[in-house]
Design brief:
The structure is a single chain. The chain is an alpha/beta fold and 191 residues long. It has eight helices and six strands; from the N terminus they run E-H-E-H-E-H-E-E-E-H-H-H-H-H. It has a four-stranded parallel sheet with strand order 2-1-3-4, sandwiched between helices. Strands 5-6 form a two-stranded antiparallel sheet.
Length: 191
């Protein structure tokens, strides 16, 4: 089986993450070696971002979110790949190195979606999250997690989830359809 080729350079946290990504896809991967990113590594990431673009792909845990935030502030145009904690967990350890190739491929392919400038009015707003039960209601965190897994955005609080949806160009209809599908899977009517 031929591995998918990713044109952007993928930025991960550790060497084990590099190995996991390379088992799943054909790509160039840079490692931050944790939160204290050296000046040399930061320059390599900057060069990659300018030449080919980058995909930030950090662990779905507190440390990974902090690294993602730091990199996103430095490289706001970077694409974002996300795994759920369930996809990245093995024996109590959470990290990309624990994810299967299918989950890694799905996350990286989902990162390739970009919002079209003229589709801004079709992108969801926070009120859409509330209306769909994705924020501000009992069970909204669980539903956001399921919808995030389906759409490849990963889990986040309501505001961060909305930013991820908009960055990916996921429109209101796609979001509503995913929420309805997740509710149906859980035996709820979705409407």
């Amino acid at each position: 089986m031929t591995k998918p080729r990713i044109k952007e350079v993928i930025v991960v946290e550790g060497r084990d993450d590099v190995s996991a990504v390379l088992r799943a896809v054909d790509a160039d991967v840079l490692c931050t070696h944790g939160y204290g990113i050296s000046a040399q590594t930061l320059e390599q990431i900057r060069s990659a971002a300018e030449e080919r673009g980058i995909i930030i792909f950090t662990d779905p845990d507190h440390a990974g979110l902090n690294i993602r935030k730091k990199l996103t502030e430095e490289f706001p145009g970077a694409k974002q790949a996300h795994l759920t904690q369930g996809e990245a967990e093995k024996d109590g350890d959470i990290g990309i190195e624990n994810a299967g190739p299918e989950a890694i491929i799905r996350a990286l392919e989902a990162a390739g979606r970009e919002a079209a400038d003229d589709a801004e009015s079709e992108l969801p707003v926070f009120d859409d999250l509330v209306t769909l039960g994705l924020a501000g209601t009992p069970g909204s965190a669980e539903l956001r997690e399921a919808v995030g897994a389906m759409l490849g955005t990963g889990y986040a609080n309501g505001s961060a989830f909305l930013k991820r949806l908009r960055r990916r160009g996921i429109n209101r209809k796609e979001l509503a359809d995913a929420a309805a599908a997740c509710l149906r899977e859980n035996g709820q009517d979705g409407g």
